[in-house]
Every structure is written in C-alpha cells, then in structure tokens.
Design a protein that fits this description.
Layout: E1 2-7, H1 18-26, H2 31-39, H3 45-53, H4 60-66, H5 76-85, E2 89-97, H6 98-107, E3 115-122, E4 126-129, H7 144-153, E5 156-162, H8 168-171, E6 176-179, H9 181-189, E7 195-196, H10 200-208
Parallel strand pairs: 1-2, 1-5, 2-3, 5-6, 6-7
Antiparallel strand pairs: 3-4
Helix pairs in contact: 2-3, 5-10
C-alpha cells in the first residue's frame, strides 16, 4: 500500500511552537484573553488568529527575521530524505501561517515541500486567509481532517505526526499516529493507540523496521 505522511509544523517540525512565540513575544496586551477563548472553544482559529494578529504592529520583514532563531526538530532532514528516496507522499499540514512557515523552510533549505496552511499578509496591518476550512466544523482555520480523508480516498496508508490541539481531529482518522506533547496526553487519556516521538529519528526507526 502507498504511504503518506501528514506532518504538523509548529512544535513538530520545529522544536518550539513558532506561531505561539510570535503572538506571545510580539503582540500587544490582550492576546492571552483571546487565546483562552480559543482554548475553551468559544471562538475558532480564524477569529482567534485575526484578533491576535491585529495586535501585532510589526511587518512581514520583521516576522521573517524574528523566526530565523527557531531550530527544526532533530531528524527532520533525514526523514525528508527517506520520504523522497521511497517516493512517499508528504504534506506539511498546519493551522499556522505561511509568512513564517515558508521562511523557516527556506532558511533550512526545504523549498519544494508541499505545505497546506493559513495565509498571513501584511498591508498596513495583517490580513489573514483561511482557504481550507470545514463547513461542518469551522473550528480550525485549516481542516487537516480533509487532508487525511483525501489521502485515504486515494488509497494511501496515512501516518500522522503531530503535537497539538489542531491535530486531534485529523489524527484519529489516520492509520498510524506519532504523538508528542498535548496530542500525546490526549491519546493517553482516551487510551487510544499511538507511537511516542520526541524527534524524527523516532519516526524513522519505526518506518524502517
């Protein structure tokens, strides 16, 4: 069976949650209250993101320079090489934003990878776009569940790699789940099957075995 990997970005490909770090360090006061509304599912990602990014007064170049300090997770380069060598499908699926995701991938010479995420453009303030929302749910800006469903409909065995809230829904439809951080806690609490991972060498070890 064909293999496909759906990989989260913030806190998965990167060591830290870059999107959260941008908000925490660069947004004006009020971002935390907005974030709590999102955590309590009183607002969705699109509303939360738009409200929080309205509090950021820095432009696109500033953001791109700011994210240059964030490291990627160990083993990701080797993981990408393994994916390419075996002609596996891989999609980076993020509920974050292209302005920093593409910049970090560029810094580490990962151009050409398929990325599905939300968009943030600066024009006298931040303008956000959410092009892969779900009409059924609407909580996430980027519906990763649809990405997994499309791959499975095309006959792929889907491996999901993630760490956060936006990974829960989609990962439950995948065939194999690698989880860390919040996603790992969720799977443990629900007593659902998953594989623990700290970095991509753990994933490589599994797929090579």
């Amino acid at each position: 069976m064909k293999k496909a990997f759906v990989v989260d970005f913030d806190g998965t490909i990167t060591v830290q949650d870059v999107g959260f770090s941008i908000i925490k360090q660069l947004a004006d006061e009020g971002w935390e209250e907005i974030g709590n509304l999102w955590l309590n599912k009183k607002i969705g990602t699109a509303q939360c993101g738009s409200m929080q990014w309205d509090l950021i007064k820095h432009d696109e170049e500033y953001i791109k320079n700011f994210v240059g300090k964030f490291p990627i997770n160990e083993g990701f380069r080797e993981f990408v090489q393994e994916v390419n060598k075996n002609s596996y499908e891989m999609i980076i699926a993020s509920d974050g934003y292209d302005v920093y995701i593409n910049q970090i991938l560029k810094i580490y010479s990962f151009q050409g990878l398929r990325v599905v995420c939300n968009s943030a453009k600066y024009d006298n303030g931040w303008k956000l776009s959410f092009l892969n929302t779900s009409q059924e749910c609407g909580f996430c800006g980027n519906c990763k569940k649809r990405i997994v469903a499309d791959l499975k409909n095309r006959g792929y065995k889907v491996y999901y790699i993630g760490d956060g809230h936006s990974d829960i829904c989609a990962s439950k439809d995948a065939d194999v789940v690698f989880a860390k951080s919040f996603l790992k806690e969720y799977y443990q609490n629900k007593e659902l099957p998953y594989h623990n991972f700290d970095n991509f060498f753990d994933v490589l070890k599994y797929i090579k075995s």
